[in-house]
Design brief:
Radius of gyration: 16 Å
Oligomer: single chain
Strand content: 15-25%
Number of helices: 6
Strand order of the largest sheet: 3-2-4-1-5-6
Helix content: 25-40%
Mean pLDDT: 95
C-alpha cells in the first residue's frame, strides 16, 4: 500500500494575475515560496523523513515547491516526472481568465484550440503515478510507503476525480496553491482520503 500526498505548487505571478499557465514554465514568486514552506510545516507531523519519498512535475514551479518542502523536512530534492506536468491549455496559455471566458466560454465545457483534453490529462496523470508507485515500491521495504507528489491544479483535480468516481472536487471549486490532498494506492486502485479546496 502506498499513501500519496498530492500538493499543488505555490503561487506564481501568473496565478496572481489569473493567467492560464498550463505547460508554460512559470517560476514561483515569493508568496509561492512562503506557501511551500508553510506546506512543509503542515506536513512535518504527518511524515517520517526516514521513509517518505518526494517527487514532482518537472515544471519549475512544482520542482521548486518540492525542493523547498524537501529542504524543510530534510528529504533532499525531488525526483521529477514529466507525466505530472500541468494540463496543456493550447491557445489559452498566457490569457487571463476573463479573456478565456470571452473567447471560449465557461469552464469546463470550453473548447480551446490545441488544448489537451481532460481525459488525456487524467490518463497521463495515472500513468505517471503508476510509474511513481512502481519506482517507490522497488526501492522500499515491504509495507506502507508514503510519497509527497508536488504537481498542478488541473492534474490533481483529475486524480481526485478518478479516485472519488467524480464525486470530488465539486465543479468550480478551486484547489489552492500549496493545498494538500491525501490518497491511498492499494493494488491497482486509488482511493481519496481527503482533499482541501481553495
Amino acid at each position: 500500500m502506498t499513501r500519496l500526498i498530492l500538493v499543488r505548487h505555490g503561487e506564481t505571478d501568473w496565478n496572481r494575475a489569473r493567467r492560464i499557465q498550463g505547460s508554460t514554465d512559470i517560476p514561483l514568486n515569493d508568496t509561492g515560496r512562503a506557501q511551500a514552506r508553510d506546506t512543509a510545516l503542515r506536513l512535518r507531523d504527518e511524515v517520517d523523513p526516514e521513509t517518505v519519498r518526494l517527487v514532482s512535475s518537472d515544471l519549475s514551479r512544482a520542482r521548486e515547491t518540492a525542493e523547498i518542502i524537501g529542504a524543510e523536512l530534510g528529504l533532499g530534492g525531488p525526483r521529477t516526472y514529466p507525466e505530472l506536468r500541468e494540463r496543456g491549455y493550447g491557445d489559452a496559455e498566457g490569457e487571463t481568465d476573463v479573456v478565456f471566458a470571452e473567447r471560449w466560454g465557461p469552464w469546463p465545457t470550453a473548447q480551446v484550440p490545441n488544448a489537451e483534453s481532460r481525459e488525456d490529462v487524467r490518463a497521463r496523470a495515472l500513468r505517471g503515478l503508476t510509474r511513481v508507485v512502481s519506482d517507490i515500491r522497488s526501492e522500499s521495504a515491504p509495507g506502507e510507503s508514503t510519497v509527497i507528489v508536488v504537481a498542478h491544479g488541473a492534474l490533481i483535480r483529475e486524480v481526485i476525480g478518478h479516485a472519488s468516481e467524480d464525486a470530488f472536487p465539486i465543479p468550480g471549486e478551486r484547489l489552492a496553491n500549496g493545498s494538500v490532498h491525501h490518497l491511498r494506492w492499494e493494488g491497482d486502485r486509488i482511493r481519496l482520503l481527503s482533499y482541501a479546496a481553495g
